[in-house]
Amino acid sequence: MIFMRSRRPAMLLAIWGLCVGLAFGAAGVAVLFLLPRAYVVAACLGFAGLLDLALAGWMVLRIRRTPGGRLALFRDRMVLIQGRTEMRALWDRMELVTLAEPAGSWPEVNLTDTVTIRLRGERPLIFRPAAFGMDPVACRDLLLKLRDEPSHRARLPEFDSALDLRARPVGSR
């Protein structure tokens, strides 16, 4: 389960809308100059071109609103990808999942919009769920539920990377 939609369909629709919109606009101008009394045809082609350009603009706005990072949840681990940085955390190594500042003491706890995951024997993993398109409280609750209840993790896919495929023969499980 990966909390990130691909940008490819929106990019294709934006490019398609731009190309077709420009083609309809050029056809409308060509009809207007070549056929002197074809105002209705030229107007229809121009309107179709404007609609396609509007579609392209809408898709560009959609592309800009998509989260920059990806959060992937698997049966044995969680994977965070931001740009070229990939961070992994195994469920059984998670000690603490919190929204509190790491340096705070009990009476003075400050809640933040960043999730801090303290891992056994490793550096803490700190990230902002908003960068992945998630609400911080809902993200923390989901991570706690998946960490504490293996029955919920059983419905998630298995982690399988290119390194795993090289390490074992193809077709074996």
Question: What is the strand and helix layout of this fold?
Answer:
Blueprint lengths: L7 H27 L4 H27 L3 E5 L3 E6 L2 E6 L3 E7 L10 E9 L5 E3 L8 H13 L1 H4 L8 H6 L6
Antiparallel strand pairs: 1-2, 2-3, 4-5, 5-6
Helix pairs in contact: 1-2
Describe what is shown at a glance.
This protein has 173 residues and is of the alpha+beta class. It has helices spanning 8-34, 39-65, 136-148, 150-153, 162-167, and strands at residues 69-73, 77-82, 85-90, 94-100, 111-119, 125-127.
Please trace the helix and strand order, writing H or E for each element: HHEEEEEEHHH
* Strand line-up in the sheet with most strands: 1-2-3
Could you tell me the radius of gyration in angstroms? 25 Å
Domain count: 2
Q: Can you give the helix content as a percent range?
A: 40-55%
Please tally the β strands and state the result: 6
| Unreliable residue runs | 163-173
Structural class: alpha+beta
| Mean pLDDT across every amino acid position | 81
Oligomer: single chain
Shape descriptor: elongated
- CATH C-level label of the largest domain: Mainly Beta
CATH fold category name of the largest domain:
PH-domain like
**In the CATH hierarchy, what is the architecture of the largest domain at level 2?**
Roll
End-to-end gap: 20 Å
Number of separate helices? 5
How much of the residues is beta strand, in percent?
A: 15-25%
Largest sheet: 3 strands, antiparallel
Question: Could you describe the 3D structure shown?
Answer:
The chain is α+β, with helices and mostly antiparallel strands and 173 residues long. The chain has 5 helices and 6 strands; from the N terminus they run H-H-E-E-E-E-E-E-H-H-H. The strands form 2 sheets. Strands 1-2-3 form a 3-stranded antiparallel sheet, with no helix packed on it. Strands 4-5-6 form a 3-stranded antiparallel sheet, covered by helices on one side. Helix 1 (8-34) packs antiparallel against helix 2. It is elongated, with a radius of gyration of 25 Å. The model is unreliable at 163-173 (pLDDT under 50).
